[in-house]
Structure formats: structure tokens, C-alpha cells
Amino acid sequence: MSKNAMTSKLTLQLQQAATDPEDIFDLVCVGFGPASLAIAVALHDRGVRAKVLFIERQRSFSWHAGMLLPNARMQISFMKDLATLRDPRSKFTFVNYLKTKDRLVAFTNLSTFLPLRDEFNDYLTWCASQFEQDVRYCQETISILPINSCQEPVKSWQVVSKDVNTNRQGFVTARHVVVAIG
Ligand SMILES: Cc1cc2nc3c(=O)[nH]c(=O)nc-3n(C[C@H](O)[C@H](O)[C@H](O)COP(=O)(O)OP(=O)(O)OC[C@H]3O[C@@H](n4cnc5c(N)ncnc54)[C@H](O)[C@@H]3O)c2cc1C
């Protein structure tokens, strides 16, 4: 079977499959790294009440885990965190993270704008932990297909993912999709 025929067959199967209303989302973000996390934070800060899902293949949030070398520092100022430049009063600023962890004075006394990568990873993980209910970990997205592909513009998408432990496939329906896989 040609690739096009296989894609058409899969599209048809997905259309025919009963879609659980629970699995219909306004927005699905594929990948839950800093880019998607920034979207989660911005939607939260603006009070947007959309139904959003983040799909991540790792077991839990981690920012380039293999590259957290001892004493390696960020290459940009902590002011370029997930919130400050958009809204310095957001609870998701790096400064609020430091305050929450009782590290504000110690960090200030370092006289640097460049946190350790390890600490910035902890900041990102702290932010991510506040969106646990919206994230499906251990899920790797393998295809994104338009529903009713004859319809222009496309109104919704089937996002197909597999469980990284069991290889079991499942899908959700999204009105909008952001691909933020790094
Ligand atoms: C060593 C290193 C140091 C860096 N230092 C800085 C710095 O100091 N300052 C700076 O601004 N930038 C730095 N960067 C750049 C870095 O790209 C960004 O900081 C940031 O990680 C980009 O975020 P992202 O969400 O776009 O991508 P990523 O961080 O790569 O996140 C993508 C996520 O998508 C997931 N994913 C991928 N494919 C799938 C799939 N098919 N299904 C489900 N999930 C999937 C991945 O597991 C990952 O969690 C650095 C990068 C590296 C590698």
C-alpha cells in the first residue's frame, strides 16, 4: 500500500472511531518543554479558560536533562524567564520562584544575572508542576492529521500518540495544534 493510501486509511479509521468528548481540546501542544510551558503560563496569567492538553514523551518535566553539567550557567539573563518580560507581576517569574524556595537573598548576593542551568531547570520544573493536570507524560506524538481534509480551512486535527512504555496508540481531537518539539 502506498504512503498516501495508508494515510487516507488511517484518516478514515480515525474519523470513524468514536471520539470521547473528554478527548476534544481547544489546543493541543506537542512537547512540553519551555516553549509549551511558556504557553501554559501565558494562558494561566491571562485567565484563558480553554481546554488545553500538553503531550510529552518524557516521564516527567526535564529541560535537556543530559546537559545539566555541574556549574554550567544560563547564557541569558534570568529576566528572560517564562513571564517577566510579558508580566513582571506574574507568579511564574524566576524571582517569585526564588522567593518561594527561600533563595532570593542568596541569589541576589551572587551578583549575577545568569543562574546555574541546574537551578533554572528546577525553576522550570517548579512551573511545570503547577500544570500536571494538563499534561500527559510518556506519550510520543507520531502523527497529526486533518479531520475532514477536504474541508478548507481545516477546523480540527487528530493528534495520534503512543505510550512510550507499551507502544499502545491513542488519539485526541484538537481545534488548534502547536508543535513545540525543540
Ligand atoms: C545545552 C543547552 C543549553 C541551552 N542554553 C540556553 C540558554 O542558556 N538560554 C536559552 O535561551 N536557550 C538555551 N538553549 C536553547 C534551548 O533550545 C531552549 O532553551 C529551550 O529548551 C527550547 O524549548 P523548546 O520547548 O522549544 O524545546 P525543548 O526544550 O527541546 O523541548 C521539546 C520537548 O518536546 C518533547 N518532544 C519531542 N518530540 C516529541 C514528540 N514526538 N512527542 C511528544 N513530545 C516530544 C521533548 O521531550 C522535549 O521535552 C539551550 C539548549 C541546550 C541544548
From TrEMBL:
Its cofactor is FAD. Gene3D superfamilies: FAD/NAD(P)-binding domain. The keyword Oxidoreductase applies. It catalyses: L-ornithine + NADPH + O2 = N(5)-hydroxy-L-ornithine + NADP(+) + H2O; L-ornithine + NADH + O2 = N(5)-hydroxy-L-ornithine + NAD(+) + H2O. Keywords: FAD, Flavoprotein, NADP, Oxidoreductase. Signal peptide: none annotated. It is an enzyme of class 1 (oxidoreductase). It comes from the Eukaryota. Pfam families: Lys_Orn_oxgnase. InterPro entries: FAD/NAD-bd_sf, Lys/Orn_oxygenase. Pathway: Siderophore biosynthesis. Its EC number is 1.14.13.196. Belongs to the lysine N(6)-hydroxylase/L-ornithine N(5)-oxygenase family. This is L-ornithine N(5)-monooxygenase [NAD(P)H]. It comes from Stereocaulon virgatum. The lineage of its organism: Eukaryota, Fungi, Dikarya, Ascomycota, Pezizomycotina.
